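User: My collaborator sent over this chain with a note saying "see what the structure looks like." That's all I know about it. Can you take a look?
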Amino acid sequence: MTANIVEQLMERPDLPVILKELQQQLTWEEQQRKAWLEDSLTDTFKMEFINGQVIVHAPAQRVEALVSGNVASLLRTSVLLRQAGEIHQEKAMIRLTRNDYEPDICYFDTTQVAEFNEETSLFPAPRLVVEVLSPKTEARDRGIKFQDYAYHAIPEYWIVDPRQQTLEQYLLAEGATTYQLHKKSDNGDVDVQVLPGLKLPIPAFFDERKAQDEVERLLMAARK
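Assistant: Without extra context I'll predict from the sequence alone. Here is the result:
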């Protein structure tokens, strides 16, 4: 797609003017981004900087918060038992080339974690991102974020729908620039590709009791 855009621009006689305008716009955008990071971020609100705009998110509805907590608990327990890195839920700002996001859940592997310190507040592209859909965020989760996460080679992306109670697991093939749907289901297990050998029961994402039971099962298995 990028090559096609470049080819189209190269045919334009006004290409120098277009490039100048684009550079001016990007310079202004980066200035706004810097000011926002320095002066406007808070611990209270979930905020993101997307294509030059500051997005302030409404508080999560109960169904979204419960599902996000279930998924984070399952992943965090698994990662801790494996000593395989860190799971961050909300308020972890990942800084990509143009945009800054606060994913609902993200996973950083041990190599990445080794580069962090206690004051780290801006994070690189993680290995796994999970977005829990809401009516207000779905367009971005399936649109700009879907594109941007793939562009920055995040190998695994989950879209979890708390109302339909489904998981969509997207994977990025080596060298690819767009995700392919690997699994969409409301039952069975999901094989976490970035954590080989880990299977998590999809129904537990949407049921707090099942999530707790699975956490206990994981802990018991680790003691054996």
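A starting point for your reply to your collaborator: The chain has two domains: 1-40, 48-223.
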